């Protein structure tokens, strides 16, 4: 740019000098013509050649001046000081601009390389560096001194390390604290996870997640800190007037929550079910829906993967029953009593997580149904299990569910057959399937096609369960009471049915007393009224038979000691007999 401008100035000066010389030449010629208009003489010709030589020498001097200008060695007597100063300033400013543009280009080029490097190293375990491709002119001429350049590098480094807001910085400091709950910083001070400064900023961050209708402001723009007491009060106030969260996420009596609806949609999308018709019944633990299976199901979905269906596609029932276990424990809070002591689910039981308990409850029913089906009992076939949604074969016909045993109209012969079938099923269930139903009654038995079908087996436990005999005694009482009310003659009593199933004496194992422990007795007011001798036995407060249990334990201990002594005596007699035989053999040999 400065070279072009210097050419323009030089050409302009040359034109001015030529115009001035031509004017002088014309003036001289006019004067000579006026003085001697005759033909040119020898002196005129000589003067003309001399002027041509002067013009040539003058052009040579101009080219020499131009070369000196380009080389920076122009003399002050050839170009005026103003023009020289202007040329020097223009040349210096153009050089600075060129250097700044080059430096800016190098900076953008290096930033692009750093961006590519960060993108490559984001998810990779091997770090790739592009430092050897960085340009050296980055930010070299953007600052006048070396200190300014160092400050620029520090600012750039700080900009890359800077967090989006102070909440992010606070979270990093909290995450840096180890599991022991404290650490020592560089200054030697101990920082704990209960530090008021860190907790205050974290509470300010949590306030930002309050419901939209609660005006919180932007706590990240200023140094806001909230103590735990203030935060808890604000949290309670923000929830005022809102519906309980459990009511929103719980499975309603006549519907399902969003998560359950998503599971049902997936069953339809996977072509396991074709449509879901409506509710069959509701209970304390589940909602039962009716559905039709998809006849085009081939065992795999559109991606060629299985969907967890437990039967071949050609055996898929036309009508299905969907049992959706309620995701709240408000109506059935004793589920843990049936799960925590079952060795199959003992290690996975967590009372703190209700969702886990519900899923385990559904899985427990699936396993119990499959075990009961393996010994030939009439139970619904399991189609598929998805978390707390269990799809089974529908017991009924044409969308009409089979009646419960309590609602079925049975003749005397059918009633007798039902009793014998139930007693035989209880015997098989205990001795072959190694299970106790634990909730067997006329409400959990369906009557369909002249047979009894057993349902609701999620609470079934194994005989090794601490409360198995108690549950079995309760089942025996429910069955016997039902058939007694129906007037069926010649049936077992509760104790006789228990002994028939287990081959154990109910009085010896005191199962009836164990059952009464969990039976609701009289209130404290009823138990302390005057004339307590007149109070019926069934209303008296229940007491655990500690004395009977102590006597029984002492008897068992004495019997075990006597058996041990008898065993020791038998061993001594055997030893004596063998030694005598050896002596006799030795004597005969002599």
Q: What would you note in describing this structure?
A:
With 590 residues, this protein is of the alpha+beta class. It has 18 helices and 11 strands. A hairpin with a 3-residue loop joins strand 3 and strand 4. About 6% of the residues have low confidence.
Short description:
The chain is α+β, with helices and mostly antiparallel strands and 590 residues long. The protein contains 18 helices and 11 strands. The strands form 4 sheets. Strands 3-4-5-7-6 form a 5-stranded antiparallel beta sheet, with helices on both faces.
Q: Distance between termini?
A: 139 Å
Strand order within the widest beta sheet: 3-4-5-7-6
What is the number of beta strands?
Answer: 11
Summarize the biggest pleated sheet: 5 strands, antiparallel
Order of helices and strands: HHHHHEEHHHHEEEHHEEEEHEEHHHHHH
Structural class of the secondary structure composition? alpha+beta
What would you report as the Rg, rounded to the nearest angstrom? Answer: 52 Å
Strand content: 5-15%
Shape: elongated
Which regions contain 5 or more consecutive residues with pLDDT less than 50? Answer: 37-49, 72-77, 141-145, 516-528
What percentage of residues falls in helices of 4 or more residues? 40-55%
Chain-averaged pLDDT = 75
Secondary structure tally, helices: 18
């Amino acid at each position: 740019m400065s070279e072009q401008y210097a050419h323009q100035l030089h050409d302009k000066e040359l034109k001015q000098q030529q115009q001035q010389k031509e004017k002088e030449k014309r003036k001289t010629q006019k004067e000579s013509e006026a003085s001697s208009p005759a033909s040119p003489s020898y002196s005129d010709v000589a003067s003309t050649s001399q002027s041509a030589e002067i013009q040539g020498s003058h052009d040579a001097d101009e080219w020499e001046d131009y070369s000196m200008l380009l080389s920076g060695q122009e003399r002050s007597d050839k170009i005026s000081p103003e023009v020289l100063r202007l040329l020097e300033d223009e040349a210096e400013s153009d050089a600075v601009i060129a250097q700044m543009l080059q430096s800016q280009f190098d900076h953008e080029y290096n930033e692009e390389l750093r961006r590519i490097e960060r993108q490559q190293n984001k998810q990779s375990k091997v770090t790739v560096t592009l430092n050897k491709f960085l340009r050296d002119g980055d930010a070299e001429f953007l600052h006048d001194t070396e200190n300014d350049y160092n400050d620029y590098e520090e600012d750039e480094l700080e900009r890359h390390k800077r967090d989006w807001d102070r909440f992010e910085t606070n979270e990093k400091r909290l995450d840096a604290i180890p599991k022991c709950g404290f650490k020592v910083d560089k200054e030697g001070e101990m920082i704990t996870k209960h530090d008021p400064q860190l907790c205050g900023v974290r509470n300010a961050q949590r306030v930002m997640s309050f419901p939209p209708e609660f005006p919180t402001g932007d706590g990240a723009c200023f140094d806001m800190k909230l103590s735990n007491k203030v935060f808890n009060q604000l949290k309670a106030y923000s929830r005022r007037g809102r519906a309980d969260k459990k009511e929103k996420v719980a499975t309603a009596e006549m519907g399902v929550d969003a998560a359950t609806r998503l599971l049902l949609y997936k069953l339809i999308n996977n072509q396991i079910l074709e449509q879901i018709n409506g509710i069959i019944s509701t209970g304390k633990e589940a909602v039962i829906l009716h559905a039709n299976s998809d006849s085009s199901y081939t065992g795999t979905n559109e991606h060629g993967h299985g969907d967890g269906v437990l039967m071949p596609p050609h055996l898929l029932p036309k009508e299905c029953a969907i049992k959706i276990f309620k995701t709240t424990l408000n109506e059935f809070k004793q589920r843990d009593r049936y799960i925590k002591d079952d060795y199959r689910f003992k290690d996975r039981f967590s009372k703190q997580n209700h969702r886990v308990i519900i899923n385990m409850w559904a899985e427990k029913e699936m396993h119990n149904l499959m075990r009961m089906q393996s010994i030939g009992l009439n139970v619904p076939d399991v189609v598929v299990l998805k978390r707390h949604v269990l799809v089974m074969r529908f017991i009924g016909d044409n969308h009409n569910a089979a009646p419960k045993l309590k609602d079925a109209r049975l003749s005397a012969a059918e009633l007798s057959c039902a009793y014998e079938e139930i007693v035989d099923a209880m015997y098989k269930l205990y001795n072959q399937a190694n299970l106790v139903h634990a909730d067997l009654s006329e409400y959990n038995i369906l009557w369909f096609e002249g047979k009894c079908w057993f349902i609701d087996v999620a609470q079934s436990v194994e005989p090794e369960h601490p409360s198995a005999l108690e549950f079995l005694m309760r089942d025996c009482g429910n069955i016997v009471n039902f058939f007694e009310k129906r007037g069926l003659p010649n049936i077992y009593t509760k104790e006789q049915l228990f002994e028939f199933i287990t081959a154990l004496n109910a009085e010896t194992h005191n199962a009836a007393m164990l059952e009464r422990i969990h039976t609701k007795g009289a209130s404290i007011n009823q138990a302390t009224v005057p004339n307590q001798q007149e109070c019926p036995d069934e209303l008296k407060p229940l007491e655990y038979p500690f004395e009977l249990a102590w006597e029984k334990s002492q008897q068992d201990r004495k019997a075990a000691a006597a058996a041990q002594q008898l065993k020791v005596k038998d061993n001594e007699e055997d030893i004596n007999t063998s030694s005598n035989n050896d002596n006799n053999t030795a004597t005969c040999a002599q």
